[in-house]
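Q: Start with the shorter request: fold the first protein.
A: Done. Sequence, then structure:
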Amino acid sequence: MRRKEHEIGLEQVARLMREADLKDVTQGGKPITTKPAKTAIASPNLVAPLPRSRT
């Protein structure tokens, strides 16, 4: 719409897209930017062995 020099707000665009059953191309979640290692080594739990001081 802006390319054709029409002033239109985001809410109006959202409403028109809903009425036309259109979806945003980026809708669907965050992009995955990293991949976990296949042989990940778990870190040892250093908190569990501590004794509790309060009873």
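Q: Next, the second protein, separately.
A: Sequence, then structure:
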Amino acid sequence: MLRHRRAEQITEQILALCQKELPDYMVPEAVIYRDDLPRTSRGKVDYRELEQMALDWNL
């Protein structure tokens, strides 16, 4: 529970900073925490998998 509360606080801080420093169209709609990024067999970031995850989360 404490970890969840801390993540909420950090998310609020990130979004507040983005709203302050970025134009409106660049402010993210959500912040997602992951331990790691999906990788291809060659070790590069798998952007297709990231896109699918965003679709699964309705982002």
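Q: Describe the second briefly.
A: The radius of gyration is 14 Å. The helical segments are 2-21, 47-56.
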